[in-house]
Design goal:
This protein is α/β, with parallel strands linked by helices. It has 7 helices and 9 strands.
């Protein structure tokens, strides 16, 4: 295993390139349940999905399926992806969305309301690669019972988080690039410093503990600049 990266991507282009490289490494290693996650609230996901689609088209030709959660997203993708021959389907199409000839699948930004449909699709996919980009399946609605929560957690545990990048406001960032460990970065007056690496994703309590152990008053300039690169997608 190579040494952990010592820098964070500071442009959208760099982050997406890093994400696609991680996806390629995971697929080459035999991973079939993959999550790619850029945790920026103002991010427009379709331009990012397009870059993933370019990679999948290069790898599988037209023998893969792009899955959208609603008709509006599918219409926008069809408009913007005219140079790709990939088929676009909705998660509500059930069995029709999973063709026998397809070798891989990309699901774009499923939310908690689609979790049941996604689970059913996954059963139809079998052992073929299934990639979720920016899923929000864990955002359970208020009032969800304990049994349902555990079922959802068990479902999510079937996936490998192959790429993850999230700014932590006023603190730093959480980062993971397959096959490396999770990285916790701390904001400092001069940039971002690698605080700690972990084999598993740290919980919110673990992150709070790590940052509480540090002293000093970090500046927001670097993190704000990183956020601005991702917000540029909205322009």
């Amino acid at each position: 295993m190579t040494a952990a990266p010592q820098t964070l991507p500071d442009t959208l282009e760099a982050a997406v390139a890093e994400m696609v490289a991680a996806l390629q490494a995971a697929l080459s290693a035999g991973c079939t349940r993959i999550i790619l996650d850029l945790r920026f609230p103002d991010l427009l996901v379709l331009p990012v999905a397009y870059e993933v689609a370019l990679f999948l088209s290069a790898a599988y030709g037209d023998r893969w399926q792009a899955l959208c959660t609603d008709a509006g997203t599918a219409a926008l993708a069809k408009r913007d992806w005219q140079n790709l021959t990939v088929s676009l389907r909705g998660v509500n199409e059930g069995r029709a969305a999973i063709r026998e000839s397809d070798r891989a699948f990309l699901l774009i930004s499923p939310s908690a309301t689609e979790s049941d449909r996604v689970e059913k699709l996954l059963d139809l996919v079998g052992d073929r690669p299934f990639v979720m980009l920016n899923p929000r399946l864990e955002n359970a609605e208020v009032g969800l019972g304990l049994t349902a929560r555990r079922l959802r957690e068990r479902f999510m545990s079937r996936f490998e988080v192959v790429y993850y990048l999230q700014p932590l406001e006023g603190k730093g960032a959480l980062h993971r690039v397959y096959p490396e460990n999770w990285e916790v970065w701390q904001q400092t007056p001069v940039g971002m410093d690698l605080l700690q690496t972990m084999p598993l994703r740290p919980s919110g309590d673990e992150l709070d503990r790590l940052f509480r152990q540090q002293t000093g008053a970090p500046a927001a300039s670097f993190l704000s600049r990183l956020q601005q690169f991702f917000n540029a997608l909205s322009r």
